[in-house]
Write a structure and sequence with these properties.
Keywords: Kinase, Transferase. It is a single chain. By secondary structure, this protein is of the alpha+beta class. It is built from eleven helices and ten strands. The protein has a six-stranded mixed beta sheet. Strands 7-8 form a two-stranded antiparallel ribbon.
Length: about 325
């Protein structure tokens, strides 16, 4: 892994010096792009297209195009190159892979290309289940999300914007994390640094760095842990047949500004009435929501805790091993 990291650093420096993308990142032949964006997010627009006979997602990085200033565009180019190089080398069952970067779909623009996930986001996917079946599917997806995040953290990568809309479900019905790193691209190229992401998934130290003795806000593995608990809560209504809702949905004064003040003051969403969230998951969520980031558990500890509540068959490999599914089967 150390040799791979050094090689990626060298390639990144060469690309920066040459002011161009490495040829290994560039692909051609993306065609049949949908006329309109299928999804629009904070960083870009997603189109459906075809590549080598298979459907792909073509992500137009809008922020890269939102300036005419040469220097700003260079900064964005270098950030995009860095994130793409990191993403390209990630291979894990619960991480969306990067196929490459397309430079032909839009004039003078760059688009990231990844496999098309027909099931959509985890939120869309869960809407098709009911009752006990839904609960078992949610429990499995939560474990898979944790395992995908564990792989990122093991690779020294912070997701930065973990929430339901950034978690897809692949064609085999498994969770697949996406859009990690793109918030960093946004942060580095916008005037308002706190504008990327959603405040309802943000840890208190991001919302108010001064209160924690931090000079500036910075997304960390600890803020990812906080967001993971919010994702668990976000999926909670799906354990019945309710519409999925963001954290603090339905609470008094639940606009974003009010939510920010509540989170900074140490307020967390209450446990839903009834048995919607299993005790062991609620316990994990409370630990993840610790006000001081140093008191939150590691994602590896969370994965092990979730695994302890599931029967396991086979030989257990590292939860960060991309091939762990060959030897580890989680029974629902």
């Amino acid at each position: 892994r150390e040799a791979t990291s050094r090689a990626c650093t060298l390639i990144r420096r060469l690309a920066r010096a040459a002011d161009r993308l490495p040829s290994s990142l560039i692909i051609s032949g993306v065609e049949q792009r949908s006329p309109c964006a299928v999804f629009s997010g904070g960083c870009g627009d997603v189109f459906r297209a075809m590549y080598q006979g298979r459907p792909v997602a073509l992500k137009y990085i809008r922020r890269y195009q939102e300036t005419d200033q040469r220097e700003t565009r260079r900064v964005r180019f270098h950030k995009l190159c860095r994130e793409a190089l990191v993403w390209q080398r990630l291979r894990h069952a619960f991480i969306v892979p990067l196929i490459g970067i397309d430079m032909e779909g839009f004039p003078s623009s760059l688009c990231m290309v990844s496999p098309w996930m027909k099931n959509g986001t985890v939120i869309n996917f869960l809407s098709g289940f009911r009752g006990v079946t839904r609960q078992s599917v949610v429990n499995r997806l939560i474990r898979e999300i944790a395992q995908g995040l564990a792989f990122l953290h093991d690779q020294k990568i912070v997701h930065g914007d973990l929430r339901g809309s950034n978690i897809l479900v692949d064609d085999d019905d498994h969770a697949s994390l996406t859009d990690f790193g793109l918030t960093v691209l946004s942060d580095a190229t916008t005037q308002s640094q706190n504008g990327a992401g959603s405040v309802r998934w943000m840890a208190p130290e991001i919302l108010n760095p001064d209160a924690f003795g931090l000079e500036d806000y910075k997304r960390t593995t600890a803020s990812d842990i906080y967001a993971f608990a919010c994702v668990c809560l976000e999926a909670r209504p799906m354990w019945l047949h309710l519409t999925c809702s963001p954290p603090f949905h339905g609470a008094a004064h639940c606009n974003d500004a009010s939510v920010m003040l509540q989170v900074i003051a140490g307020v967390r969403p209450p446990r839903p009435a009834g048995d919607l969230i299993p005790n062991h998951i609620w316990s994990v969520m409370q630990q993840c929501w610790a006000h001081n980031h140093v008191n939150r558990p590691s994602i590896l500890g969370i994965v092990l805790e979730l695994m302890n509540h599931q029967p396991v068959i086979g030989t257990c490999k590292s939860v960060t091993d991309p091939s762990y599914l060959d030897g580890l089967i989680f029974m629902l």
